[in-house]
Amino acid sequence: MKNVIIIGAGGFARELYSYLKDANYEIIGYIDIQENNFFDLKYLGNEDNFDKKLIQKASFALGVGQINLRKKILVKLSKKSCNFITFIHPQSFVSKEAKIGQGV
């Protein structure tokens, strides 16, 4: 089972949480601007202030829907050597012509 940390705690992150659970990912916590009630997940800090040891223990899933903020966080955490998963739900249909990149 792959360990994952979700970035964000809004509606898109909550949807992503359900998809990852369905696909048997081990979600070890979430990173967001501030702590809030995000299901049963442990709050791990914000993107500037979290335990850097987690980078070696888990991959990251970007649960932020707003595109400009999403890009900003992706760039910032990539510079810290964070690895982002590319997630395709097992029940998804993906066209043969589709190109899916990192962090999708």
From TrEMBL:
Protein's recorded name: Transferase
Domain PglD N-terminal, residue spans: 3-76
Annotated organism of origin: Campylobacter coli
GO MF annotation terms: transferase activity
Keywords of the record: Transferase
SUPFAM superfamilies recorded: Trimeric LpxA-like enzymes
Source organism superkingdom: Bacteria
Pfam families, sorted: PglD_N
